[in-house]
Amino acid sequence: MGWGRSVHSNPTRVLFVCTGNLHRSPMAQTILSDLLAERGIRAEIASAGLLPGGQPMPLETQEALRALGHDGPELGAQRSHQVTDSDVTSADLVVGMARNHVREVVVRMPETWDKTFTLKELVRRGLAVEARRADEELRSWLGRVADDRDRQDLLGSATVDDVADPIGGSSSMFEQTANEIQRLCVSLSTLLWP
Predict the structure, then answer these.
(1) Which distant-in-sequence residues (6+ apart) come within 8 Å of 33 by Cβ?
(2) Is the pLDDT score of 8 beyond 90?
(3) Which architecture, in CATH terms, is 12-192?
(4) DSSP element (H, E) containing 74
(5) What pLDDT does 6 receive?
(6) CB within 8 A of 96, min separation 6: which ones?
């Protein structure tokens, strides 16, 4: 996995998680890293998957990212990584691309509930409580975001908080997924680092 580009003296560590760490989570890692680097914000952004790693980033994923202007040389060198307990405990914030990713992390490590959300849930709840204040610790902001959150919400199969997996889809599906992740990451970056 390796923590991504360090873009603060105590940088926030964000870990994106999806199924195979081939499409959605590496898209989110690349996009958020680039957004923060453009703003001069230091953070460590990483991604991992629930499945065994070692696979290169698929061309469809690379092409969808390049279409949005994310074309660093690291795209071709990136390899998938299976999430470990250490990855999760090292992160200040864990962001699943779908509800089942959050469920897997929280079942393995129940103590991570307060810092583990889906991307859509985090943005939706973040917008409801407004952006983190300049003097506010991340943990405090996440506490506001998680107010009235219920673990039961992780049960069932509703997909309202999921970013759709483009695997096996057309190039336009990959582009739609990348566009959605970009919109969500723009919102997330302004909520966390206003």
Answers:
(1) 4, 5, 7, 43, 45
(2) no
(3) 3-Layer(aba) Sandwich (3.40)
(4) helix 74-77
(5) 39
(6) 16, 17, 18, 102, 104, 105, 116, 117, 118, 119
Which strand ranges, in their side-by-side order, compose the sheet holding 116-118?
43-49, 12-18, 93-96, 116-118
Q: 46 near 91, Cβ under 8 Å?
A: yes
Per-residue tokens: 96: 């699943």
Q: How far apart are CA 49 and CA 71, in angstroms?
A: 22
CB 96 within 8 A of CB 117: yes
CA separation for the pair 188, 122 (Å, rounded): 8
Closest alpha carbon to 113 in 141, 138, 143, 87: 143
Strands 116-118 and 93-96 come out as parallel
pLDDT per residue over 14-54, tens digit each? Answer: 999 999 999 999 999 999 999 999 999 999 999 999 999 99
CA-based nearest residue to 125, from 150, 141, 139, 146: 146
- Between the alpha carbon of residue 147 and those of residues 77, 128, 129, 143, 151, the distances in Å are 40, 11, 10, 6, 12
Structure tokens at 73: 């040389």
List of residues 6+ apart from 172 with CB closer than 8 A: none
What angle (nearest 5°) sits at the alpha carbon of residue 68, between those of residues 101 and 141?
45
Domain ranges of the chain: 12-192
Task: Give the model's pLDDT for residue 112.
Answer: 96
